Amino acid sequence: MKPIRPKQPRLRLDADAYQHLCRQILKRDGWRCQACGSMQQLQVHHEEFRSHSGDDSEENLITLCERCHGLLHDNGNSCKKLARAVD
Question: Among 17, 36, 42, 76, which has the minimal tally of Cβ within 10 Å of its Cβ?
Answer without folding.
Answer: 76
